[in-house]
Structures are given as C-alpha cells and as structure tokens.
Amino acid sequence: MRAIIRLIEGLSVGGAFLSAAGMIFIVCLVVIEIFLRSVLNTSTLVSSEYGGYALVYLILTGLAYTMKEDGLIRINLLTSHFSENGKRIADIISGILGAAITAFALNYTVQMVYETWDLEMTADTIAETPLWIPQLAIPVGLALLLLQIIAFIARRAINDK
Amino acid sequence: MISDPLMLAVVLVGGMVLFLLSGLWIGFSLYAAAICGMLFCKMNLPPTISVWDKIGDLMANSLWNTMNSWPLSALPLFILMGEILYRTSISTRLLNGLVPWLSNIPGRLYHINVVACSLFAAVSGSSAATTATVGKITFNELSERGYHKSLAIGSLAGSGTLGFLIPPSLIMIIYGILSDTSIGQLFIAGVIPGLTLAGVYSVYIIIRCMMDPTLVPQEKEEFTTAQRIESLKDLFPVFLLITVVLGGIYAGLTTPTEAAVIGVLGALGIAFWFKNLTLSNFKEALLSAVKTSGMICFIICGAAFLSQVVGFLGIATAISKYIATLNLSPYMLIIVLGIMYVMLGMILDGISIVVMTLPIVLPIVTAAGFDPLWFGIFVVFMVELSQVTPPVGFSIFVIQYITGDDVKDILKATFPFFVIMVLMVILVTIFPEIVFYLPEKMIGT
Amino acid sequence: ADLKMDCNAIYGATNFHSQGAKLFADKVAEYTSGSVQITVHPGGSLGFKGPELLKTVKDGTLPMSDILMGVVSGSDQVFGVSSMPLLAKDYAEAKKLYEAAKPYYDKACRRWNQKMLYAAPWPPSGLFTKEPLNTAADFEGLKTRTYDKNGAELLRAAGASPMSLPWGELYSALQTGLVDSVLTSAVSGKDGKFWENLKYFTKINYAFPLNMMVINQDYWDALNPKQQEAVLKAAAEVEAYQWEQSAKSNDDSLKILAEKGIVITEPSKEISDMLNRDAKLMLENTLKGAKKGFKAAIKAYEK
Ligand code: NA
Ligand code: NA
C-alpha cells in the first residue's frame, strides 16, 4: 500500500517538473519574441498562442503536486473543531467527492480530446496547431490529480501522515 | 426542477456554503455547487441529450478555455518572480533598505504592502497576481520583525486589489469594450482614485498605530542621513527591476503579459548579482511557483465554471432586470446597484460580474444621468470589493494560502479595509471630480 | 411543445451581430406566439471563445450560437471562404460569394449536426495606420495587428511585420508604439476609438467575413413543423436586415471616424495591385491543399 502511495506521489513530483519546464518554456518564448520584434523587426506570430498552450500544460501537470503538498486550500472553519477521528472521516468524504468530480471531468476531457483529434480540429492561427495536442494536457493532468487524491484518501484511511 | 433564477441563486449559494464549510477544497466546492445548479435547473433538453453529458461537456470546455489564455500566463510568471525575490533574500534586503526611510512614520513597515502593491499594480492587471507576489515578498518578513499579523494581512488584502484600479487593468479593458468607453480615459481616470485609496490605507495604518503603539515592534532606532544613503544600495536593485519592467511596457518593447518574463529575468539577474542564486533555491522557487499557480488557477477554473453556469441560469441578468423595473432616483439606484454588486461579488469572479450585468445596467445608469466613464470606475471598485468578500474572495484565498491563517481571522483583519473601500466609493459618488479631473485635463492638452 | 434555448453571442451587447441575434430571438418569439424562446447571452458570458463553437453546438452543449465563420475554419475549411483576402471586393460580390458557397456551408453544418439559420457579413476590413500609406514601400516595417492567419500572411507578403495580439492588449500596444497599425473594420475602429492613437484609414476592402447563426440539429428536430417554419421566416428577415445593417454601420462608422479626424482614403493603384497579386497567390496556394467543400465553393463563385 505505502509503496503504491509513494509511487503515485513520485508521479506528482514528476508532473511538477514538467510544469516548471512549462514556465521556463514561456520565458524562452517571450525572450525570442521580444528579440525578433525589437532587433529583427519581425515576429514569431505564435508567442501568444503557444503561451496559452503552455499555461494549460503547466497548470494541469502541476495540479497533482499542488494537491500532494497540501496546496489546494480549503476552509476549516467547522472542521477545525472536529476530533482527530472526525477530521479523518471528513477528509475521506471530501477526498471521495473530489475524486468523483475529477473522474467525471476526466471522462469528458478524454472524450473532448478524442473528438478534437477525430474531427481534425485545428486552431484558427497561422500555426494551424492541431488542438488535441495542447488539450491533451488536461486529461493527463486530471489523471495525475485523480491518482493523487486516491493516494490522499488511502493515507487518511490507513492513518498515515 | 426550478425555473426561477432567484430561487436558483439561493440553491447555488446555499450549496456552495455547505460544500465550503464541509472542508471540501475550494475549487471542488465551486464545481460541486455549479453542478448542483445545473441539476436543479429546468434545462428543456431534447430527448437525445442527457443532462450529465451537457454538464460534462461544459466542464471540459470550460477547463480548456479558461486555462488556454495568454493574458493569464502572466500570473505564474509574476508568482515565480516573487518566489525568486523571496528565496534569494532580495526581499529581506528590500525591507532592510526601507527601515531607515520609514522609521519616523507611524506604522513604519506596515506601509510596505501599500507601497509595493501600488507599484506592482502599475505592472499587473490582476489582483490575484498582485496579492500573491507582494504577499510572498512582505508577509514573512513583517511577521519575523514582530509586526502584528492582522494589520499586515488587512493592508495586503486591501492594497492587493489596487491591481484593478491602477492601470493597466484587465477589468477596465473589458468594461471599455463593452460600454464603448475609451480604455485610455478609463486608465487615466483610475489613477487618482487608486492613489487616493492607497493614501487612505496609509492614513488608516498611521491612525491605528498611533492609537495602539504595541502594533509596531518596540525597538525603534534613529537613523542618520549617512545610514539612509547607505540603505539605498539595498533598495536600488528592486527599483531597477521595477524601472525595467515598467520601462519595457511604456517604451513599447513589451506587452504587459510579456513584462512578467522581464520580471523573472530581472529577478534572476539581481539574485545572480548578489551571488544568492543557487541551483537549489532556483529549483525551490520553481516548485513553489508551480504550487501557488496551481492553487490559484484551480480556483479560477472553478470560479469560471460557476460563472458559466450562473450565465446559463440567468441569475445576474434576472437581478439586473428586476432593478431596472424599480424606477429609482439616481442616488438610490447607485446604492441598490452597489448592494447588488457586493452580493454578486460574493459568488462571481470580477470579469463575469462586468460581462453579465453591464448590458442591462449601463443603459439604466446612463439614463439616470451618470457618465459611463464614472460608472466604469464605480464598477472597478465593485470588482475590488468582490475580491475580499466571502465565500468566493480571491484575495482571501491567496492570503489564506500565504499565511496559513484561519479564514475567520483573515476576514476580521480585512474588514476595516473593506469599509475604507466602501467609503471611497461613497466619496467618488459624491465628488465625481475625483474621477473626471485627470481625463479632462488630458483632453484639454 | 414549448422550447427554451440559450444562444451564445461572442460580441458585446451593442455590437450589431449581437443585436441581430436579439432581433432574431424577438421575431422567433413573436412568430411562434412565445412557444419558442431564445435567450441571447452576449459578450461571451457563457464562457466560449470561438474555435470550439462548431463542436459545442454539435454536441448540444449550446443549443444555438452566433459564430464568426473564420474562427471555425480550423474545424471545417469551407468556413474559411469568406475570410479569404480580396476575394469579394464590395457588398455585391460578398453577397454573390455567400450565395455561391451557401450549399457547401449547409452541407458542412449537416456534418456537424447543426443547421445554419442565417449569415451576415462584418463590414470590410481596412488598414488603420499612424502614417499615410501611399506606395507599396510604405508597408515596409509596418507593425500591424492582424486577427487571423490570412491577414498575417497577406501583410507579411506586402513587407509588413504582422503581430497577433489579444484585442484587450491592443489599446496599450498602440499607445506605447508596440504596434503602429491595425487590420480591422471601420466599425471595430470606431468601437476601439482608434482616433486616440491612429490617423489614417485605407479602405482596402480586405474581406467581408461572415457571421452565422446556427442551431443544434436535435433541438431543431424537437420543433414542430409550424415552429420550424416560423423560425425560418424570422431567419430570412433577420438575414436581409443584417446585410443592410452591415453596410449601414460601415457608412456610419466611416462618417464618425472622419469626424474624429481620421483621414480616410482609397488605396493607390500600386497598393491595390500589389495586394491583389499577393491575395491571388495566397488563394492559389490554399486551393492546392484544400478540402473538397472549399474548392467547390470557390469554383462556384468564380463561375
Ligand atoms: Na494594474
Ligand atoms: Na467575493
């Protein structure tokens, strides 16, 4: 059990590094764009398009890590008064609800990406990017998040901090 | 099944409060409330389409459209800039450098939130980025120096919202396009109210600290002019960073979104210059920025989906339409609209508030004799207020994340600054010259 | 049976396409004695942006939507016909192009499980600039904000450096000099108060991009024949009215621009020759790799 939890958490950290790479990608993209524009008087024409895609990637692949590091905040106005056991149960219920919403969204984003690919939808930009490529980040990120939530529930269930 | 939009609003708010109080993560709470709203609403679907498919497709689309946004990508970058400044101790230097200059002003370093947010507001068009970046730089420093948490939190929450009022401002751009008002004039019109609001925050800090000197750490040092000049070398790099970022925008080299990248590179450059940059603190800054961005954007996604559902249910439109039927006197109208916006601001994000209400509200307001330019500033104030009101208040969430404090304490700390904002709105309503002075001056020349 | 439908409209409530949608909703309510009710949500307040709309209506996530054809050309190429540069050079030609391509639009809509109710053009795009455009050489180094890939390609061929920039960032970009020219319609120029930063408008009549109103097929099938007939009647009336409105709002906007000090000129022969040549080349290149529907529509128009 613990080994599986650690494996999932390892995946979340891997996602975080992808996410960090996304940030560095935007920095490079903008530097190139500003250079082209101010020195060579031309433009990549794609920096705002790819910048948007990079944001999708960096946020979605980073979500599981945010969850793992207890970064997704919640309001503990009521739950802070619960007993240790009560808190555990509340956490497990929240975890199941969160997992259900994530699984629901995952199902429909997989469909969205599949159809976008199947219908050969592309962006209306000069790059004509096939949209399923940037969209793919969403189900990947949600799958990582779902695993991380399951790990969270498992940790609370076996009462492991 | 409910078809009355006002009843649906009650269901939506009730559900959301329930989910939030149960300790469900905020982003999920917003999604859950929105799903409930869709399920309770009478959708009139043809037999071939199931309600679950409709909700699921909307959710998938909303995730993609909300995150596939170039302007929003400035958010993680500004957060990264703040993290770099914080982890390489440049923020410590900044505060060290400011101590000698603020030593004679009551409240001393409390003013740093006001000053830093005003400066940062000139670069960033969003309040979440302003609060997260400045909060990261100042909050721990203030706590470590023995400053009182509540005033530090309150001043951060209040000043963080200046991001919308001081140009560039995302909300003003949207308002300008929707209302056929000059975005340039809106930008200029926001300057005096923005700086006045910042000034009033500072005055409030001074009064609080004079009434209760224990709020400020006791050891008070006297500084000589030589020491002040010496401190400039700690302040200089950050001023240089601000100049480069702002200069890039105003010289036409970068867009405000691209300026975030300049900010990151500038922060790295300074850290390198002070020989504080190591691979390990750069990695920490990156991972921490990933975490903070994920936290904010997850809530943004939830709020965007909720706003979408509110749009489908017609809640904002129904309320605005109802007010239109009341035939109120001009000042009564503004008061009622103010109350409406505060209420909508509890559940909607800023952009949605403007987009959903403006088509109905603006004609009533102009018919009542108010200038669209003035109303634009009024609306920006309303959006600022929405950042600090529960249950959905972005500034509150960001501060909860940075400080780890209880929402109750944060709300208590923020309340005086909320009141100051409301007073500012009243002031601007009674003396609209505060808004018109600069734009009229500019036209004259 | 009574039917209530949400209709997405991308542009703000005062834009003439959004007002056309509103007019359509009112007429439908009138002709069906209130049994079909359409709620128009302007300003993109339902959270949709554009490129996804064909699919969104296909899945019934949105029952109805106002769509700028060009932005869904990535879903079905035929919708890119009306945004091909300098293919139609005035309203009469734009109408002819629409009528020639209409069977192919309808066919594409059927493939995407929806029905096109009416379509109307944006007023023609021209070039707003800081400096006058007299010769082909004046395009050299122009930093132009364009809104689609065709505009970017054409301007690049003419020697300018096109830039893609969100509309929301345009105002500050013009002010700071990040861009010095914009390819857009007189109406958008008026709405964006371009006289605050720009001085000239050259009427190159770049394109008359179409906006269409579509309804999901399942929702359409849920209407009884009488309701369908009433909706089509409303659609035909709104279509005729919107074509007039488009031309009228173009004239009105040009008048306002002139009053505010924008110098409005026809392009010189040298400029229009160059642009026509580049546009023709672009069309040939596009046709080479084009899908069937796109080719057929262009062929029907050139006949
Ligand atoms: Na700002
Ligand atoms: Na709020």
Automatic annotation (TrEMBL), chain A:
Protein's cellular compartments: Cell inner membrane
Residues forming coiled coils: none
Pfam families: DctQ
GO biological process, one term: C4-dicarboxylate transport
Record field: transmembrane: 12-38, 50-68, 89-111, 131-154
Molecular function in Gene Ontology: transmembrane transporter activity
Keyword set, alphabetical order: Cell inner membrane, Cell membrane, Membrane, Transmembrane, Transmembrane helix, Transport
InterPro entries: DctQ, TRAP_DctQ
GO cellular component: plasma membrane
UniProt topology in membrane: Multi-pass membrane protein
Ranges where the Tripartite ATP-independent periplasmic transporters DctQ component domain occurs: 26-157
Recorded family membership: Belongs to the TRAP transporter small permease family.
Protein name: Tripartite ATP-independent periplasmic transporter DctQ component
Naturally occurring in which organism (per UniProt): Maridesulfovibrio salexigens (strain ATCC 14822 / DSM 2638 / NCIMB 8403 / VKM B-1763)
From TrEMBL, chain B:
Domain of life: Bacteria
Keywords, sorted A to Z: Cell inner membrane, Cell membrane, Membrane, Transmembrane, Transmembrane helix
Membrane-traversing stretches: 6-33, 151-177, 183-207, 235-253, 259-274, 295-319, 331-361, 415-438
Major place of residence: membrane
GO molecular function: transmembrane transporter activity
UniProt domain TRAP C4-dicarboxylate transport system permease DctM subunit: residue ranges: 14-434
Subcellular localization(s) per the UniProt record: Cell inner membrane
Bilayer disposition of the protein: Multi-pass membrane protein
GO CC terms in record: plasma membrane
InterPro entries for the chain: DctM (IPR010656), TRAP_DctM (IPR004681)
Pfam family, any one: DctM
Keyword Ion transport: no
PANTHER family from the UniProt entry: C4-DICARBOXYLATE TRAP TRANSPORTER LARGE PERMEASE PROTEIN DCTM, SIALIC ACID TRAP TRANSPORTER PERMEASE PROTEIN SIAT-RELATED
Protein name: TRAP dicarboxylate transporter, DctM subunit
Organism (species): Maridesulfovibrio salexigens (strain ATCC 14822 / DSM 2638 / NCIMB 8403 / VKM B-1763) (Desulfovibrio salexigens)
